[in-house]
Amino acid sequence: MKVLGLMSGTSADGVDAVLLQLRGRLRQPRWRLLGHHHHPYSALLRDRLTAVGQGAPLSAQAWLELQEAVTEAQASCARQLDPAGHARLVGCHGQTVWHRPPRAGRRGVSCQLLLGPLLARLLERPVVFDFRANDLARGGQGAPLVPLADAALLGRRRQATALLNLGGIANLTLIPPRWSAAAAAVRGWDCGPANSLLDLAAHRLSAGRLHCDEDGRLATGGVPVEGLIRQWLQEPYFQQRPPKSTGRDCFGADDLARRLGQLQGHPTADVMATLTHFSAAVVAQDLAPEPGLDALLVAGGGVRNPALQAALRERLAPLPLVPLDQRGLPAVAREAAAFALLAWWRWQGVSGTTPLITGADRPCLTGTLAAP
């Protein structure tokens, strides 16, 4: 079955689409990547999404029009990749603007902008969307959603595999080795900020000229303030054991302002180096108790930041960093491919989450199906 996957991440830079051929066993399918396309958001749409993600108020009309604009951008990306409509099914994550995991007896909620029935109508194909709601309703985190899909797409190897995604948030997938007991489970969780604080800091420190620290230039040559990094690593989220997930509700503009206040008086390069090394340090701290890894596979927008990659290599040595592309799955296509697979599982009635990963009371189907 040919399935089209659509993913737009926390950084809100645009939509990634993949066309995936899936067949065979559901949990270990044979798959082939038939194509990938990236459709950048317009500057206006990106700025509106970033503002909403930081709590900017919108009227009901503006909120609906923003969902409509996101839906149309997703449809445009899908058409550019698959103009002939070869895909029989579409899996679309939508655009996350807020994610609040369960805490202190309060249920979790998550908001992904998308008009699923409209997308199904625009593409004239069934669409699976709203992947987090069912897990959240069962007491789960609703995130991360991709670990089981990662394991299915990458398979098990002789040694345990760790996959790090460096989007707005850094998240890990841990896949047991093939020789482990059958009951050995795939695990995954959100480590903390990856690009979220870096992008916001670059925008603020450049007086709005930059939307990210392109090629790590702002951080290059800077010296991280290690005392602050050690202090930040003691904060409650980084001491919490999985299941756990996070987003801009924790690591957004307010959090950045607090950290910049603590860095007041330091040169811009040192500020950016500190935030960059902080993103690397939260990953290193989470991986420290995980023995037997042969390498850390790396994907996400953060792979294009040499300063962040250097910080990771320094803090994870001697564990080598390996681009995900070298294991047969292009890093740029990984998340969209995961949502194609999750949509296929939903179509087939197969659960896409486990309590070990999300903390829900039981495994559940992920996604709502909208007919064209």
From TrEMBL:
- Under which EC number(s) is this enzyme classified? 2.7.1.170
* Xref: Pfam families: AnmK (PF03702)
Keyword hit for Amino-acid biosynthesis: no
- Is Cell cycle given among the entry's keywords? no
Signal peptide (residue range) = none
Show the InterPro entries listed in the entry.
Anhydro_N_Ac-Mur_kinase, ATPase_NBD
Q: Which reaction does it catalyse?
A: 1,6-anhydro-N-acetyl-beta-muramate + ATP + H2O = N-acetyl-D-muramate 6-phosphate + ADP + H(+)
Q: Which UniProt keywords apply?
A: ATP-binding, Carbohydrate metabolism, Kinase, Nucleotide-binding, Transferase
Q: Name one GO biological process term.
A: peptidoglycan turnover
What SUPFAM superfamilies does the record tag this protein with?
Answer: Actin-like ATPase domain
This protein's pathway reads: Cell wall biogenesis; peptidoglycan recycling; Amino-sugar metabolism; 1,6-anhydro-N-acetylmuramate degradation
* Binding residues annotated for ATP, in chain numbering: 9-16
GO MF terms here are: ATP binding; kinase activity; phosphotransferase activity, alcohol group as acceptor
Question: What family is this protein classified in?
Answer: Belongs to the anhydro-N-acetylmuramic acid kinase family.
| PANTHER family noted in UniProt | ANHYDRO-N-ACETYLMURAMIC ACID KINASE (PTHR30605)
Q: What does this protein do?
A: Catalyzes the specific phosphorylation of 1,6-anhydro-N-acetylmuramic acid (anhMurNAc) with the simultaneous cleavage of the 1,6-anhydro ring, generating MurNAc-6-P. Is required for the utilization of anhMurNAc either imported from the medium or derived from its own cell wall murein, and thus plays a role in cell wall recycling.
Q: What is this protein called?
A: Anhydro-N-acetylmuramic acid kinase
